[in-house]
Amino acid sequence: MPEGRLTHSPDGRTPDHEGARYARELSRHLQWLDSFTGAALGVLSAASGIYTYLGVRSLLDDTGAWTTFAALSYSIAVSVGIFVFWSYMLRLLPAVRSAASKLGLFLSMGLGCVAIIAMSSWLNAAALAGAAAVEQHLAHTVQNYQSALERTHANAIAGQSLARDVARVRETFDGLSQQEAGGDLSGIAGRGAVFRLLTQKSDELQGLEEQIAAQDRAVSQAFDQGNAILSRMRALSVEPGAIEGRSVRFAEEAVRLSGIIAELRQLNVAPLVNRAAVDLRDSVVLPDLDATSAEGRTAQQATIASVMGLLADRAETLTLASNEVLALPEAEEIEYTPLSAADAVIRYAGNFVPSWAGAIAIDLLPAVLVFILMVTQSAIRGGLGAHSVEETMTVSELRAALAAARALDIPADPTPVEPEPKPTLRAAE
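Now predict its structure.
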């Protein structure tokens, strides 16, 4: 058997001195690490409290002394809570041995981690990425407004395109009126009843066409104004400076842009053309038949009936064209809602994963230390095994024990003292 590997204890057990030496080495490392673990935990707790303070301040509108005191009190409470919680976990969880105790403490640690995230981590994320998250909200709002502006403008342009349909119908009635003036329709040349009816509808369509054409410039100007407002809103979302002031100016521009979008909706002539198509068919003022003969009046009546059928057909054409424009999808109603830094971080959490990871890590990093201590303590217990204290004592520990015994003046091998015999009285003779 190699020398110094195994020795026999008085009761016959053979402890593994290599395992005991390994356990003592780990214990020395833990003692050295424990000398600054508390300070490190305090630094982490203080750092979390500072960012929590900044996050709380971003939620509070007032800037007075009481607000500062309230935010400071909350951040101090968070720092103390984190320090105390992880101090408990670092001491107790590695020390327990039974499965039930470990499970109970694991559940307690999980509940504590959730509480820490709820009371601190999201505020830390707000302090780390709050301004960037608000800027992200502004940029997202600009995109929504741009989509709404372009959609509304496209619908308005589609409405303006109905001017061509109206012009074609008007040209039809203009041509028929010229034919009637030559007597090609009713057989009666001149400006009779049929001519006046055709001219009446042609004038109505001419007025509608002019009304549509008059809105071209208004649509173009509104779209240009909307784009100019969008440019200012984009600049506000990225320019340097405090985000609070930029948010106020951004809200003002958003109100103006909402008005421009509403104006573009009103400039869409599709509803006007739809109503004009109905009037073209239904609102007809029939002129008096002015032919001098019964045959002429009969011809005029037949021609007017044909014109009325044509009016119904052309009205149906305009109705279908206007309904196609009205069926185009409308832009969604956009309303800018200002968000605080904390709310913006939560809404756009997917865009700020690194910031969230850092905010949570600064609070939950001690959990890694807890697991390290659990593994190390388990290794120490495995190295020591089920040995008695005297089997695992080092030379220095033995010397310390002997020195303590001498200090207590306890003899190493005490000799039993026999009691003196009691004197007996001899009876008097």
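The two ends are 77 Å apart (CA to CA).
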